[in-house]
Amino acid sequence: MRKIITVGRQFGSGGRELARRLAEELQIDYYDREILAEIAKHTELSEEYVQNVIECKPHHLYPITVGQSISYVNTYAFLQTQSVYTAQRDIIRDLAAKSDCVIVGRCADYILQDLNPYRIFVHADIDSRVARCMERRSAQEAAMTEKEMKKQILRLDKNRAKYYSFYTGQKWGDPACYDLSINTTNCNIKEMAAVIAKLFQ
Amino acid sequence: MRKIITVGRQFGSGGRELARRLAEELQIDYYDREILAEIAKHTELSEEYVQNVIECKPHHLYPITVGQSISYVNTYAFLQTQSVYTAQRDIIRDLAAKSDCVIVGRCADYILQDLNPYRIFVHADIDSRVARCMERRSAQEAAMTEKEMKKQILRLDKNRAKYYSFYTGQKWGDPACYDLSINTTNCNIKEMAAVIAKLFQ
């Protein structure tokens, strides 16, 4: 049986850690930020720009061109967003065709539906997500308060939900769209990954 | 660590089978219909009547008395429903206090929240639930068509959702209310139960 596992996740839920540990347990490939780098290569856009497109609304304006009419910028930004999605789709299909793997986010559950992937969604209550993100703050985030972190988490989730819904027509996080929905609120992620791995062994 | 596991389930999803197998794997007690019999004993109502109360709307009319004004019957039925819930709550608390166990349905996740139970919700797509229920039809259901079965499943789920929401103030099946939401659509329930059991071993 092929092992193609997709992991959607609320921001700060530890979904990425669970996905990485699951791939380690199963000794299969793991793709997360690697996909961004590949998209950047294919589209000749910067990795940061690609990430912004993916994390934000599908139609959000990215005025990377100047001196043009608003409507032109709108259309350009829209096409750019579409091209990022198309590159992402092709890359995810190539990766899954190449070998068994765990793929984090990026609508992979929908993109790979013909391969019948095992679809996991990872979530947690907002307090534990804020706590996790505060613990793991980057240098740039060092001055952030819990309130600001919460606001950032909710904004990122809202954008992920919109992005997912726009490209898949499905509701992000709706348990009907996944094989397993894991609440990591009171969960040891390492132990959970080891147990989930047994579904595929 | 105490093992108190609650299993909510969509009708026909195999949640009851998963719960039973999980209890077997863990060699702990399993409570499902046993609770109905206990409630019946405590309330001196028939087991069938108790089941009707639990499967239907909290305020649904059960005109078991006759020759009284409608408002009186309403009040009586309401009090009867409340007494069934109160008995159910007390029995579930007693059972969980007695020993490690798996308890199916009946708002046990909410009733036992102080004990921090592991809360599982089992669901599946409607086609696979209809197929499962058609395969397992009782003698009385032998003449039922798939269409009728689907209608019955959706009606029972709607009632379960209302009952749960009325007594818990939470949304039945909302993944945030559970530790694990399992989609059994393409799932070998026996294997899944064996894997889930490892979370507690």
Topology, number of strands of chain A: 5
Most residues in contact, chain pair and counts: A-B, 22 and 22 residues
| Radius of gyration of chain A, taken over Cα atoms and rounded to an integer in Å | 17 Å
Quaternary organisation: homodimer
Mean pLDDT of chain A: 86
- What is the percentage of strand-forming residues of chain A? 5-15%
Query: Tally the helices of chain A: what do you get?
Result: 8
Based on helices, strands and strand pairing, what is the structural class of chain A? alpha/beta
| Major sheet characteristics of chain A | 5 strands, parallel
Q: For the terminal residues of chain A, how far apart are their CA atoms?
A: 10 Å
* Major β-sheet strand ordering of chain A: 2-3-1-4-5
Please write the string of helix (H) and strand (E) elements of chain A. EHEHHHEHEHHEH
Helix content of chain A: 40-55%
Shape of chain A: globular
In terms of per-residue confidence, which ranges of chain A show pLDDT below 50 for 5 or more consecutive residues? Answer: 58-69
